[in-house]
Amino acid sequence: MRILELKDVNKSFGGLQAVENFNLSIEEGEILGLIGPNGAGKSTVFNCIAGVYPPTAGEIYFKGENITREKPWNLCRKGLARTFQIVKPFSSRTGLYNVTVGAFATTDKRAEAERRALEMLHHLHIDDIKDMRAGNLTIAHRKRLEIARALATQPKLLLLDEVMAGLRPTEVDEMVKIIKGLRDNGVTIFVIEHIMRAIMALSDRVAVLHFGRKIAEGTPKEVASDERVIKAYLGDEYGTA
Amino acid sequence: MGRNTIRIVPPVLAGVIVLALPLAVRNPTYLHILVLLYLYAYLTTSWNLVGGFAGVLPLGHAAFVGIGAYTSTVLSLQYGISPWIGMIIGGILATIAGVIIGLPTFKMRGAYFALATIAFAEGLRVVVENIDNLGPFRLNGPRGLQIPPLKTGLLNFMFATKEPYYYIILFMLAGVLLLTYVISRSKLGHYLVAGGEEPEAAMALGVNVARAKLTAMAISSFLTAFAGTFWAQFTLYIHPKSVMSLDISFEIAFIALIGGRGSIAGPVLGALLLRPVSDFSRIYFGDKLPGLHLIIFGVVLILVMLYQPRGLQEPLTRAYRSITKKFLGHAEAA
Asked: Are A120 and A101 in contact (CB under 8 A)?
């Protein structure tokens, strides 16, 4: 079943065409990677899907329902969660408090929300940050907190915007493992990432964006050997290696 | 004694002291100062639901005080309706006003929101100052309304001595503190904090930030109007400058910022520290240096913002915790 479908999505800011006639669909249970050079429009695509701003033209379907102009909080309740490229923790509050906010999306009871928040912290192996102020956490912990918080809303589809940027190689490997674990638990994943090693290991399929246009789509192997992708993004070294 | 027994000793002791205080403080001037202290603690706690938890800075709460004071006073003077009922009606009218202000302004950021709320409150004051009648209701312009002290008694919310007022405002304060505690632990409390700190992240987590803020504004303005009715019944004379002036809104903000916004203890601590300064500077320097208390507030605010930007409640709570811990340590050793 198609969980997400983008039909001819366009987004322009003033005279700048950020995304142009973008078509994409994600099957349930899939991990789809979105790559492309800086400024290609990747985060803009995420923001259109998540309801931060509506696309200038085109339609977006989530589980068969047209969600093109839906508000972010309603999308979250429908089962679409996201993380931000620049993490946005509630800094003055504890790790547990941060995740509890997410858990309140599906319950009104604090005890239930906190219980689920603790589960999520445990699931991402960050039990120890439960009582720590989010503003004092390391970047690796903040990235995981961001995912824990989004997961606490019990999403069907999770949009991950560069959750591995700034992590050390060992931390990247751990993150790949965690994300694969999420998929095994029934969450479909749509991920933007710059770290090629991670995207190759993670994705079932990869789409490549360049100047707002999709220039390639396929398995990681196909995409990595695509002439245009190598030229636009990966560089010649990657092709010969 | 067990751990929990010792832990509840300080709050119980504080409760007993405030309940028994009128027995020791016989001087009506001091009792008056205490009543005002609780009144401002009450006002600031009500304000804190929006100004503290929701992370915006409303500076027009005097409007709700005025709506509460005028509603109950007009209803009791013209129609003989008990101020207790007028208090509820005033609260409802203030809620409506609060929502009307909140709808367009909560999208504004920082100073713009503060300015918009000031404009609303000042506008309302100028209107009341310049009209004698609002439809069938007599407001009496700048001369204000006098409540003749004829029928004293609980039903009429009017007493010959200050003690009953002391207990009424004490229970109002206790009630609003309890409500704040409940809200801060609820879904609404979490949503307000989240929306105040990182609105975009909060929205992505299912929080309708505007609706949460509007709910808080409704509760806050409802409760603030109660203070207006109390003020009217306590002084038995209201006029636009006394119940709607910008000074009230500013003093609430001073107390909240110095005590600590967004915490439960902050508004009470702030009132405890600032109200005596305000009253005694007026008593001793009122004729020579009127407005001295505002200068002192300003200096204190600057110092607090520099060294304790979360307000004085933070270091004080820490000190309190370490003291109780010391006592608990002794108890366990024994």
From this structure: no
Tens digits of residue pLDDT in A102-117: 999 999 999 999 999 9
Q: Where are the domains of chain B?
A: 3-333
Cα-flanking dihedrals φ and ψ of residue B308, to 5°? -140, 70
Of B53, B287, B309, nearest to B187 by C-alpha is: B53
CATH 1.10.3470 fits B3-333, yes or no: yes
Q: How close does chain A come to B33, measured CA to CA in Å?
A: 35
pLDDT at residue B1 in the model: 53
Q: What is the ipTM of this complex?
A: 0.90
| Residue closest to A27 by CA, chosen among A166, A121, A156, A148 | A156
pLDDT, tens digit (0-9, with 9 covering 90-100), for A178-233:
999 999 999 999 999 988 889 999 999 999 999 999 999 999 999 888 888 888 87
Entry pTM = 0.90
Task: Name the closest residue on chain A to residue B207, using Cα atoms.
Answer: A73
| Angle in degrees, 0-180, between the axes of helices B163-185 and B3-24, rounded to the nearest 10 | 150
User: What residue in B sits closest to A101 (Cα-Cα)?
Assistant: B190
**CB contacts, 8 Å: A161 with chain B:** none
Greater pLDDT, B231 or B321: B231
Cβ separation A91–B197 shorter than 8 A: yes
Confidence of residue A241 (pLDDT cuts 50, 70, 90): very low
The residues in B 190-219 lying below 8 A from A, measured between CB atoms, are 190-191, 193-194, 197-198, 200-209
Measured CA to CA, the distance from residue B163 to residue B22 in angstroms comes to 7
